[in-house]
Specification:
- About 40% of the residues lie in helices and about 20% in strands.
- It is built from 8 helices and 12 strands.
- Helix 5 packs across helix 8 and helix 6 crosses helix 8.
- The termini are far apart.
Length: about 325
């Protein structure tokens, strides 16, 4: 009786857990809901490997059921040897060899190195730092570079080359709905080519343990129509119209400009993220907070409480009204 109850409980647990697994197949960080050509190849490879693994599993289970049938008969040594040879060696080897061949066949689509032979219309340089992302857009049409942080915007239907490097430890760049991951290694520049196929906002994590706040190092990815992307890039080439806000004096007086840059002001620091147009970004603190004035003030007052190991000092000793003024100013940079 107890054994039957345990079996029923196990079956119910499997069925209860299955919807959660299916829900993980979609969303802003799912490799199984592709929004790019490279990610589509990765998803197809995954499902083919699942089918191959399922074929091997079904074969093993079939042999297990056959061995445990109620009516048994003794097999000769030759029959048993043939069963082990064909079912336990040949069949799995053939399936695995086919899967390996299919993976090799897909490799040019997953890592389209031929795309680097042509000059891309847009190159994006991404530098991983503890624990945020420095992003620089380098258009090929002669427009000035645009510096941002913790957010990447891509034009749909246009192949983009992304150069990847690190200034401290090994990070790993990954946008699951758009393509596979690639390491960012100090002293080395790796190149990744991506082609977004539909608009949307996605999430990219750091896929290599890089320190205390590794799990708090993410970035937003926005795939836009080409015309909207060009307008966005042109707007980011100029200073924000809100550079004369009252919080600017407090920002400069407290030394924030020594670490951060805000285009059109005296802030020229390069240690921390570029805060030009920071108010228009999707998230704050490398993908861990909503980009609101309250969240900005909270991060200014105590960044270590939000992101352990962050290099930014806390400014909680400032009067609350001064922190609020700086936060309002930064949120206004759009």
């Amino acid at each position: 009786m107890r054994h039957r109850n345990a079996q029923r409980f196990g079956g119910c647990a499997v069925f209860a857990f299955f919807p959660a697994c299916v829900a993980g197949c979609s969303g802003i960080q799912s490799a199984l809901d592709p929004a790019g050509t490279e990610a589509d190849s990765v998803a197809r490879l995954f499902w083919v490997m699942v089918a191959g693994g399922a074929a091997i599993w079904i074969g093993v289970v079939a042999l297990l059921l056959y061995a445990n049938r109620s009516r048994r008969r003794v097999h000769s040594e030759r029959t048993a040897s043939l069963l082990i040879f064909w079912g336990g060696a040949v069949f799995p080897s053939v399936v695995l060899a086919l899967l390996l061949g299919y993976a090799f066949w897909l490799m040019p689509a997953i890592r389209p190195w031929a795309a680097f032979a042509d000059t891309p219309s847009l190159r994006i340089a991404v530098v991983g730092e503890q624990f945020w992302w420095r992003v620089t857009y380098l258009p090929a049409d002669g427009r000035a570079p645009v510096v941002s942080a913790n957010e990447i915007r891509l034009p749909v239907g246009e192949r983009v080359e992304i150069t990847l490097e690190s200034r401290d430890v090994i990070h790993s760049f990954w946008i699951p709905p758009l393509g596979g991951k690639m390491d960012m290694i100090p002293g080395r520049i790796n190149r990744l080519s991506l082609l977004a196929t539909r608009t949307g906002t996605f999430r990219g994590p750091c896929a290599e343990f890089c320190g205390t706040s590794h799990a708090l190092m993410a970035f937003a990815v926005v795939a836009m129509e080409p015309a909207a992307f060009d307008d966005w890039l042109d707007a980011r080439s100029s200073p924000s119209p809100n550079v004369a806000a009252t919080g600017l004096n407090a920002f400069l007086a407290n030394g924030c400009g020594a670490c951060h840059t805000i285009k059109g002001t005296q802030a020229r620091g390069e240690i921390g993220p570029d805060l030009s147009h920071v108010g228009s970004r999707e998230t704050l603190g490398a993908g861990i907070l909503p980009n609101t004035q309250v969240a900005i003030a909270r991060f200014i007052a105590g960044p270590e409480e939000i992101k352990p190991g962050v290099k930014m000092p806390a400014f909680g000793m400032l009067p609350p009204q001064e922190i609020d003024a700086i936060a309002a100013y930064l949120k206004g940079l759009k």
